[in-house]
Here is the input.
Amino acid sequence: MGRTERQELIKTIEEVRGSRLLVYITGDRRGLETRIAMDAFPFVFTHLSRMGYQEKIDLYLYSPGGATMAGYGLVNLIREFCRSFSVIVPFKALSCATLIAFGGDEVIMSKMGLLSPIDPSVTSPYGPRVPRPDIPGVEVLVPVNVEDAMSYLDLAKKEAGLKDEESLAKVFDKLSTNVPPLTLGAVNRAREQIRFLAKTLLSYHMKDEQKIEKIVSVITRERFSHEYMIGRREAKEIVELNVLDVPESLEEKIVSLFNEYNSLFNMNIPYNPEEVLSSQDRAVGQFDRGIIESDNLTHIFRTKKDIRRVEVTQPGVPVPGIGYQERILSESWVEDNSI
Here is the structure.
């Protein structure tokens, strides 16, 4: 199984759907995760330009998420090349990928298809910092989840019963002591921005403003946790996205195509440097971490690393342990029609 099988499945799905298919996958193999980002746009543009303007384009999407503005921009880019745009979700389309699904006139989800809330996290140079456990004396920035910050204030109001301005001011003062005010400002902007982006994408194919408001509220505020998973039935019946029922034979092709990509990127197998090193103490590893693919054209997000096995001495431990030093040699999207 490999490229030939993927290309056959792509063509079959296109024939059944009467569309052109664009695949965009950012892998989530543990230790080699990839995110939706704007660096993919020139390569997506190349695929779309080869297709030309189409009546219908389907985006076959798998991703744990990424930059929300990149998701918004991707929908707008694809819509420049088609009259009708749909999103196919074989498995995970989380966070920013869910936002992309909002932009689809239709959403096709397999039985294991999953969406998620789209509340973003904000990483600011003024944000909170915590010590790195592996490097004494070094601190790292901690992302602040937008809805977590808002939920802290809701907790004070609802559970603690605080209502008067003085009590709420103290609660806010406590929050701003731990999360700098400039970061809180960024959190508020991000919260308003994500709602604006979601509403805008839905408005491309929905005219009922009350329905749009309900969908945005459910997906940004009413599912409480970023880890909450929205399955096919909930996406259709409760969130009320336009989730299509498709023939079993088409769903089988959609899942089979995902299985091909899953095998290509070893997404079920956590990254382990020993796989590259084997009996050597130093080696160069090549890792394919994402793909943009259409009929007879493939771009791969590829990373090359210089990996070394080293001895690590820890205070109070008499026997040195084994550690790894890794240096990225190259990392970019590359055309590879042989894979």
About this structure: Residues 121-188 form one domain. The chain has a mean pLDDT of 86. The first helix runs from residue 3 to 17. The CA atoms of residues 23 and 60 lie 5 Å apart.
